[in-house]
Structure formats: C-alpha cells, structure tokens
UniProtKB/TrEMBL annotation:
Start and end residues of each stretch annotated as Disordered: 1-20
Keywords, sorted A to Z: Cell membrane, Membrane, Transmembrane, Transmembrane helix
Natural source organism: Methylorubrum rhodesianum
This protein's record includes keyword Membrane: yes
Superkingdom assignment: Bacteria
Subcellular location: Cell membrane
Coiled coil: none
Keyword Transmembrane: yes
Pfam entry (one): PsiE
Membrane topology: Multi-pass membrane protein
InterPro entries: P_starv_induced_PsiE-like (IPR020948)
Residue ranges crossing the lipid bilayer per the database entry: 51-84, 90-109, 121-141, 153-170
Official protein name in the record: Phosphate-starvation-inducible PsiE family protein
Length: 182
C-alpha cells in the first residue's frame, strides 16, 4: 500500500488511512471552503453557476444513493428468492441496465463536481460524449435484439461510432494542447 509520511517517522497521511467516504466528504468540504473564499470575487452569474452546481450535485447524489439502495434490494431479492439465473438474459439485462444507470449518474455527478472545484467550465464535450456513450452501451445491454428493428440497431451503432469519433478527436486535441503548453 502506498503510504505518505506526515513528517513523523512511521505515520501515514490521514487522507490515506481514511475510507473513501471520508475522503469524499473531506473533498466536498474543501470545495465548499474554496467557494466561500472565492465568493466575494465572483460575478453574479458565477455565483448563480456555483449555486446551481451545488444544488445539482446534492440532487444527483440523492438519486445515486436511491439507485444503489434499489439495486441492492433488487439483487438481494433475486438471490434470496432464487430468481437470479445468470444464464437468463432478461435478468442479466435488467441488473446490468441498473448498474449502468448508476454509473451514468456517477459520471454526471463527477462532471459537476469538477465545475465546483474550478477545474473546468460548465460544458465539457469529453464528459458529455462519455456519458452519451455510457447511455448507448446501457441501451445495447438492455436491448432485446430479437424484438428490435434492425434500423434501430443500425442507428444506435452509428451513434456509438459518431460519439466515439468525437471523443477521440477531443482527446487528441487535449493531448495536443498539453504538448503545446509544455
């Protein structure tokens, strides 16, 4: 395990020894502290953006918690009542569709948190394309190919290719920007 010394021999940094929830709470408290420090210098619109971002982060966090609790109850119910058969594709599709829904919400929340930490602007093309790709992957997982029109599948596949190309182009541009700055 990677341990950072705190200045005294044999001690580790508190951020390394605490659990992930404590680290996230600490990071959120630090972000709020930074917002309070920067608040007097912010314009009215920037203050509005900050309030909206904080509100959205709190609401999406509640949605994520509710979705995870719901997912846990459903999986426990499937296992306890012996309905869970991994070979049955409908159960598999339903469970992994719910998992991807949670992942999409987490990624969306992460993109808003990066706004609060003043790392990025409100619209982040890379993050939007990543979330859209995750949503399409979820759609492919829950899709019943035997009952879906082939043109629909073709359209979804074309969307994945287009979003993948956009994501690659934006990533490539970010790489060039970093090289130019160095």
């Amino acid at each position: 395990m990677d341990q950072r010394a705190t200045g005294r021999t044999g001690e580790t940094s508190p951020s390394r020894t605490r659990g992930p929830i404590a680290r996230h709470i600490t990071a959120a408290a630090e972000s709020l502290r930074e917002i309070r420090m920067a608040w007097p210098q912010l314009s009215i619109y920037e203050r509005f953006e900050e309030l909206v971002a904080i509100t959205l982060t709190a609401l999406i966090s509640l949605v994520v918690v509710a979705a995870v609790v719901n997912l846990c109850f459903r999986i426990i119910g499937l296992v306890l009542y012996e309905i869970f058969d991994p070979a049955e594709h409908t159960v598999f599709q339903a469970v992994f569709g719910m998992v991807f829904t949670v992942l999409i919400a987490l990624e969306f929340n992460h993109s808003i948190l990066s706004v609060l930490q003043r790392k990025k602007s409100i619209v982040q093309v890379r993050t939007v394309t990543l979330i859209a790709l995750l949503a399409l992957v979820r759609k492919f997982i829950i899709l019943d190919a035997s009952k879906t029109d082939p043109l629909t599948i073709l359209g979804l596949a074309a969307s994945v290719l287009a979003l993948g190309a956009v994501h690659w182009l934006v990533r490539d541009q970010d790489r060039k920007d970093v090289e130019a700055a160095a």
